[in-house]
Design a protein that fits this description.
Order of helices and strands: HEEEEEHHHHEEHHEEEEEEEEEE
Distance between the termini: 15 Å
Number of helices: 7
Mean pLDDT: 88
Structural class: alpha+beta
Helix content: 25-40%
Strand content: 35-45%
Low-confidence stretches: 1-7
Radius of gyration: 34 Å
Number of strands: 17
C-alpha cells in the first residue's frame, strides 16, 4: 500500500476564492408601496398581471363595491343595443353628414393605430392612443345626441344610458397607476405598519412582532375595508435586521453584501443608515438600491451579512500541511516545494489562503493532498 501511495500522488488544483466576516440576522423587508383598499368589495376586474411593470396613468383595475349590481350592468348593455339599433336606421337615411363622416374616419384611424401598436408593427404609446380613441368616441356620442335631440324615443334612451352610467360609476373605482410601478394583488396586512415613511421610526418591538408572525394592528377604518392591490416602486427598498451577534458593530454608511434565504443566487448591496443595540439584540436599518421584484411578495427572511471581503486562493483543507510550526501547502513541482501561507478562513472542506511570499502560489497550480 505504501508503494502504491507513493506512485499515485494525490493532488488538487488551486482555485480563486475569497472570504468575509459573516453575521446572521433575521430580516424584515420594507418596500415603497401604495395599498389600495375598498369598502363593501363585491368584485374586481383586472387590467394588469401580477408582478407586471406598468407606466404612470395605466389602468390597473376596476373595483366594484356593494352598491353596483349586475342588474344595472345588464340594463346598460340592453339600452346601448337599443340605441345602436335606432341610430343604424336613422343614419342609413342620412348618409351625407360630413361631420359624422370625419368623426368616423378619425375613429378608424385611431383604431388602426391601436391595432398596429398591439401587434408590435408600429412604435407609440398605448395609453395615449387609448385616450385619443376614448375622446373621439365621446365626441361622436355627444354629436349624435345633439343631432337627434328631436327624437323623443332616442333622447329617452340616451337619458337612461347616462343615468345607468352615473349609478354604476358611483360604486366603481377605476384604479390608475400613480407612478411607474410593479403591480401585486397579494397583501399580508403589514403594508400600513411597514410603510416606507416609517423606516426611520419603526421600533425593535414592532420588528420582533413581524418576525414572530403577530397579527398586524389596524384602525377601525382599516378593519372595514378589504385590501385589493399594491403599487410598488421598482427600485429602492429597505431591510430591518435583528441580530444577536455580539461581535457585529455596524457603522452608519457602511456597505455590506447580504444574502436572503430563498434567494441564494442574489447578492444585495446594502448600506447601513442606523443601528441600535438593546441588551443582546441589535436592530440595523439598511437601504437597498437593487430591483425590488425578487422580494415583491417576500416579507421576512433569514439573512447572511458579509463584510470585509478578502480575496485569496481556495484549496481543500486536506492540502494544509504544517512544517516546523508554520502552516503551508506543498507544490508538486520540483519534487515538492513547501510554501508558507496565511490562513484566512476555512470550513470542513475548503480553506482560503494567501502565500506569505507574493507570487509563490497561483490559480491553476497543483498542490499535494494529504
Amino acid at each position: 500500500y505504501l508503494a502504491i501511495d507513493n506512485l499515485v500522488q494525490r493532488t488538487a488544483v488551486i482555485e480563486s476564492g475569497g472570504a468575509s466576516t459573516q453575521h446572521a440576522a433575521e430580516a424584515v423587508i420594507m418596500r415603497k408601496e401604495t395599498l389600495t383598499t375598498a369598502e363593501g368589495l363585491t368584485s374586481v376586474k383586472y387590467f394588469a398581471e401580477e408582478g407586471e411593470w406598468i407606466r404612470k396613468g395605466a389602468k390597473i383595475a376596476e373595483i366594484y363595491q356593494s352598491g353596483a349590481t349586475k342588474t344595472e350592468e345588464h340594463s346598460l348593455r340592453r339600452v346601448r343595443e337599443q340605441i345602436r339599433g335606432q341610430l343604424k336606421t336613422k343614419l342609413a337615411a342620412d348618409y351625407g353628414d360630413q361631420t359624422l363622416k370625419r368623426q368616423e374616419s378619425q375613429l378608424i384611424e385611431y383604431a388602426h393605430a391601436l391595432e398596429l401598436l398591439v401587434r408590435g408593427n408600429q412604435p407609440g404609446n398605448l395609453l395615449n392612443i387609448e385616450r385619443q380613441l376614448q375622446s373621439a368616441l365621446s365626441t361622436r356620442h355627444s354629436y349624435l345626441r345633439t343631432k337627434f335631440s328631436g327624437d323623443q324615443t332616442l333622447t329617452g334612451m340616451f337619458n337612461e344610458e347616462a343615468t345607468l352610467i352615473k349609478s354604476i360609476e358611483t360604486w366603481t373605482n377605476t384604479r390608475l397607476a400613480e407612478s411607474d410601478c410593479l403591480v401585486s394583488f397579494y397583501t399580508d396586512g403589514y403594508e400600513s405598519m411597514l410603510d416606507a415613511d416609517r423606516f426611520e421610526t419603526i421600533t425593535a418591538a414592532e420588528v420582533r412582532d413581524v418576525l414572530s408572525g403577530a397579527p398586524p394592528t389596524s384602525t377601525a377604518v382599516q378593519r372595514g375595508r378589504t385590501p385589493v392591490l399594491r403599487e410598488v416602486r421598482p427600485t429602492g427598498w429597505y431591510l430591518l435586521l435583528m441580530s444577536r451577534d455580539q461581535g457585529w458593530k455596524p457603522v452608519d454608511g457602511q456597505t455590506y453584501k447580504v444574502k436572503l434565504s430563498g434567494l441564494d443566487n442574489l447578492v444585495l448591496d446594502c448600506t447601513v443608515t442606523a443601528s441600535s443595540r438593546s441588551g443582546n439584540e441589535l436592530l440595523v436599518r439598511m437601504t437597498v438600491t437593487g430591483d425590488v421584484k425578487p422580494v415583491l411578495n417576500l416579507r421576512v427572511a433569514r439573512a447572511e451579512v458579509g463584510e470585509d471581503y478578502v480575496a485569496g486562493l481556495k484549496v481543500p483543507t486536506t492540502a494544509l500541511y504544517r512544517q516546523g510550526g508554520q502552516m503551508g501547502v506543498v507544490r508538486t513541482d520540483e519534487g515538492g516545494v513547501f510554501v508558507p501561507i496565511e490562513l484566512i478562513s476555512q470550513d470542513n472542506q475548503y480553506a482560503i489562503i494567501r502565500p506569505l511570499s507574493a507570487g509563490a502560489l497561483w490559480e491553476g497550480q497543483k498542490i499535494k493532498v494529504f
